[in-house]
DNA sequence: TTTCAGGTGATTG
DNA sequence: CAATCACCTGAA
């Protein structure tokens, strides 16, 4: 199984799209929907356990995405983007199950990655189904709990998973999805703007989370989630020395400048920034054109 | 002990 | 519209 385009399994799984995979035996153990799987990247391609998961792995990791075509579609003179892309061309935008992605990002607000991961794993363990073992001695895996399971569990039980005020958001969303107010088929028939509006009808889902879901679960590759990090990156790289832009201005800039694969551009920029400029002790080579280290606002 | 973190919704000018 | 604020929790 050999992708014909650049692919970096580890980087993709650590790029803030999904939070439930375990590093295990030189590869990654996790689940695609309710199918447990272990994947290791080697020089020759991907090693997958168990057999029979090849197509699901291809779909989940979007190995059919044409990264080369995306590169060509990006603005030719955009040096920061070209730099970020060259830093890790193997990043992929995953095709995640809708509810799993939606629910996970609802629990992500004002949380750091380890917290999001912890909450996600706790919810799985308490309310999800245990999945079959694919590797001896490995951590137990659980599917993401269904909307019905979380709706029935009740807000109080969710609160006890350390969600805080997010428990109410997640519970209401679970109830709404269990009632069929939003589903993948409905979103599939809608334009990006319509689908975004549909998602934002859910309590606790604002523009940022809606865009994450569109991008990471609905294959809307033009969706451009703007969180505090990407906002800083854009300011540093594209709006240097200019006054602060509104979210609306940033959104319009991203759509116009990056085009139909804006979501991928966002992912490349985000990943590059997190692993270089935003880290303490980052080298000069990783600094932006302005020559300043990017830091969180004081 | 205080601050802050991968947002959202409600409330003000 | 845009700015401001509260909000659970956990880690630095």
Number of helices: 15
What coarse outline follows from CA principal-axis ratios? globular
In total, how many beta strands?
4
Proportion of residues in extended strands: 5-15%
Helix/strand order, N-terminal first = HEEEEHHHHHHHHHHHHHH
Outline the biggest β-sheet: 4 strands, antiparallel
**Helix/strand-derived class?**
alpha+beta
Low-confidence segments: 280-298
CATH superfamily of the domain at 98-217: Hypothetical protein, domain 2
Structure description:
By secondary structure, the chain is an alpha+beta fold. The protein has a domain at 98-217: Orthogonal Bundle (Endonuclease III, domain 1), CATH 1.10.340.30. Helix content is 48%, strand content 7%. It contains 15 helices and 4 strands. The chain has helices spanning 9-13, 54-60, 67-73, 79-87, 98-106, 113-127, 147-153, 155-163, 166-178, 184-188, 192-200, 207-217, 228-238, 247-258, 262-275, and strands spanning 22-24, 27-32, 35-42, 45-49. It has a 4-stranded antiparallel sheet with strand order 1-2-3-4. A hairpin with a 2-residue loop joins strand 3 (35-42) and strand 4. Helix 4 (79-87) packs across helix 15 (262-275) and helix 8 (155-163) packs across helix 9. The longest helix has 15 residues, at 113-127. The N and C termini lie far apart (48 Å). The model is unreliable at 280-298 (pLDDT under 50). The structure holds a DNA duplex (13 and 12 nucleotides).
